[in-house]
């Protein structure tokens, strides 16, 4: 967990300590995605479930990721509709993807959607992610693929996206980008970082002459299993997330 001693600027009187802590952590996640250059201007979303509720925190539409603060995050339902007053607008279109995953998967409390150049390039290729490099091997058996149906706006696509995701934690939206989901924000961010690194390495490797050294499926499965054990059985992801937050500029929007 990141440091929660940040002054509660703009905090509502009815905002619990637990909700404020989640807001701080989610704002940090938005800032990290911006810091690493993984944003798509004002588009895309990172959503986080408020424990014990059917409500979620998400970015106000129209703000840059650097402008997200704990206080201006929106509280929405699974259709992306605001459930408390805010001067900012919600973007229900994003919850055609986020809302259906949150509704269906109790093991996913944070969903991150990106389409960086490298990820979009992998999503374009029929083979999708291969599992022959250090990062790709950690994704073995964890990736689902969903056929492109146009801009993800319509509720009718929700069930098909869920079927494509199955019990996995990474959904490649073919010809588009990815969505990753995990039990909390640090683990979702670590998964996103791993997926992004896998995409970068694969794009570079495929641009070089010569055959790749292929890994057997048993090694990929072992890598994926060990990574899952490392991430979920100790505080590895929390330490990773906190370390990344310390790299952010001290004067970022808070």
UniProtKB/TrEMBL annotation:
NCBIfam families: PRK07044.1. GO terms for molecular function: actin filament binding. Gene3D superfamilies: Class II aldolase/adducin N-terminal domain (3.40.225.10). Residues 24-203 form the Class II aldolase/adducin N-terminal domain. Belongs to the aldolase class II family. This is Class II aldolase/adducin family protein. GO terms for cellular component: cytoskeleton.
